[in-house]
Amino acid sequence: MELTLAIAIGVLSASGVYLLLRPRTFQVIIGLSLVSYAVNLFILSMGRLRMDAAPILSGADADITNYADPVPQALVLTAIVIGFAMTALFLVVLLAARGLSGSDHVDGKGD
Amino acid sequence: MTGMNHIAILPILIPMAAAVFNLIGGDGRSNRRIIGINIGFSVLLLLVSILLVAVLAQSDTAAAAVYPLGNWPVPFGIVLVADRLAAVMVLTTSILSLAALIFASARWHSRGTNFFPLFHALVMGLNGAFLTGDLFNLFVFFELLLAASYGLALHGGGRNRVRAAMHYIVINLVASFLFLIGVALIYGTTGTLNMADIARAVPHIAADNVGLFEAGVAVLGIAFLIKAGSWPLHFWLPNTYSSAAPPVAALFAIMTKVGFYAILRLWTLVFANQTGPELAFGQNVLFVLGIATVAYGSVGALSSKALDRLASYLILVSAGTLLLAVAYNVPGVTTGALYYVVVATLAAGALFLLKDVIDQVLPAEAQILAVSLEFYGDEEDVIDEDQEVSRSFPAAATLLGWCFAIAALVMAGLPPLSGFLSKFAMLSAAFNAPSAPTAATWWITGALIISGLFVLIAMVRNGINIFWTSLPDDGGLALRPLEVGPIMVLLALCVLMAVFAGPALSYFADTAQFIHSPQNYIDLVLPKGETP
After folding, report:
1. Which of B129, B437, B514, B527 could share a disulfide with B141, CB 3.0–4.6 Å?
2. Which Gene3D superfamilies does the annotation name (chain A) (predicted)?
3. Residue B302 Cα, gap to closest chain A Cα (Å)
């Protein structure tokens, strides 16, 4: 399971970084989305990977080792919301830049 | 201090209330009443920040307002910590934002929609980033201030602004992802997000995890260095700052200082005073980056013909100077750096505002000249031998000239103004440090003095261009009091900082002492008697 997740994060971030470095704004925004998926998975993995473990304790005498760490799950929720909002905002700027410069190059140059 | 602890959240709540008010009551069309209420909110924020600093200045050195949000027990809940460092940064933000807001209320606020709510949201994010004692909460406030700054960078519209803002947004989104990776790694290795708790936990990290922890801190450091405008991560900065609307650029002057603040706070807390193999992790890297940033900023300042570009490069110079001071890791140098961060921010903000006023009074052909000089160089620059160099200035031009001269003296660090005092404080402390002078001492001396010379040359050349060759002869330039007033106040504060250097420096010395003994911070934030 660790290996699967590590490969997924690696592939997502590698493709994301490649797309980020491309000159078209649309490629950049897809790259940003891929990197944000990779980062979200990475945050989740930092709470240690657990199968079939709830993040909420039940009862005062529950054994804490049977539960998953809830903090990274809360963090990742925040990160998803913020990343999504920022990507949406960037999409608007992308459209504005396309309209003003007539080109989808990140520097607004015609090709 | 118990009753005063609530004051720690007010610098966040007041701008939030202002932003909410504008969203509900502002209805897009800003009239005189709305502007008045907005300035009222800003004045209120300024009063609260002054109160915060005054209360802390009268308490003992290790005092701070600690405010656990929702009263959750500290390492688990989010905590706000208004210590002397945070308080002085909040005060600087409040002064700068009030000046920029008054300046904007003259005409810039109506150049686009939703200026006021975005402006207050940015101030809220800045104050939150300075006050929070929790790493993930710091991320949230960073995003808040960045989201507002994206909107503000686009304020006024136009092709250049949109292009610069697009680069700015992409770079900062990537920086935010790096921030998250760093935070996740630190959480994975220390099991906590509270800054004080991280500092406490660092010596107890398992040996296998130390490398992972350091990787996390390095990634986090890159995110902060991008915000701080450190070489070679600064290429977004000059374009964004010089194409943003002037009051927005003035407020942006403090945004690079957020990166500086985060580095100073976390690095001194977690690394600078640890013993053993963790001692001063990354110190050399920070120092070299500081030197490179100062060098790049100085050369960039020399190469810029337009005043707003010059101001952007001056921001880089001050960012590099601050990085150097942090990396030197001596309380006395930090004292000078804290003094410097206040005056450099105020002067840079004033310079961005001054540029707009000068643009209004300059004849159109002079502006075209400045722009074409920027693109084509100045081989055709013919000096008219017959023209008198000195001539009687009309009062308005004299006023602008004085403002420019004061800003130049402060930025270049010439006596008798506060820029000189701050650099002198840094250098004298660097030479008086134990085991000084080392190679690093000479490097920091050289960087500060040579960058001062470069900045002086750049400012003088710009001043000659503007005031001696370009300003129209006939007197009575039309200036708006709402626009000149804030500039004069900001620069007057720089002068006052020099007049009252004694009390200011003793406040900053106490602050630096507090920063450099992280156990104080840990004892302050974490409940007493907790064993790891």
Report:
1. B129
2. 1.10.287.3510
3. 25
d(CA B388, CA B403): 23
Measured in residues, chain B has a length of: 532
Are the beta carbons of A93 and B154 separated by less than 8 Å? yes
- Separation CA A19–CA A14 (nearest Å): 9
Task: Name the residue in chain A with its Cα closest to that of B143.
Answer: A82
Q: Which domains does chain A have, with CATH numbers?
A: 2-50+67-101 (1.10.287)
Residue B530 has pLDDT above 60, yes or no: no
Q: For chain A, list residues whose CB is within 8 angstroms of any CB belonging to chain B.
A: 20, 25, 28, 32, 35-36, 39, 42-43, 46-48, 71-72, 75, 78-79, 82-83, 85-87, 89-90, 93-94, 96-97, 100-101, 106-108
Interface contact B163-A107, CB threshold 8 A: yes
Are B282 and B218 contacting, i.e. CB atoms less than 8 angstroms apart? yes
Paired with B327 in beta bridges are none
| Identity of the residue numbered B349 | G
* pLDDT tens-digit series, residues A31-83: 999 999 999 999 988 888 877 777 777 777 777 777 788 888 888 998 899 88
CA atoms B473, B474, B478, B481: torsion sign: positive
- Pairwise CA distance, residues B190 & B183, whole Å: 10
Tokens representing residue B487 in the block? 């500039």
Cα(B428)–Cα(B432) distance, integer angstroms = 6
Which residue type sits at B438?
A: T
Q: Could you tell me which chain A residue has the CA closest to the CA of B76? A: A71
Packing angle of the helix pair B331-361, B501-515 (nearest 10 deg): 130
Using the beta-carbon criterion (under 8 Å), do B181 and A42 form an inter-chain contact? Answer: yes
d(CA B328, CA B445): 12
CA atoms within 13 A on the CB side of A81: 9
ipTM for this model? 0.92
The pair of structure tokens assigned to B229 is 């405008």
Q: Which of B252, B422, B259, B258 is nearest to B352 (CA)?
A: B252
pLDDT for B166-197, tens place per residue? 889 999 999 999 999 999 999 988 888 888 88
* Residue B169 sits at the chain A interface (C-beta within 8 Å): yes
Tokens of B63: 């005092």
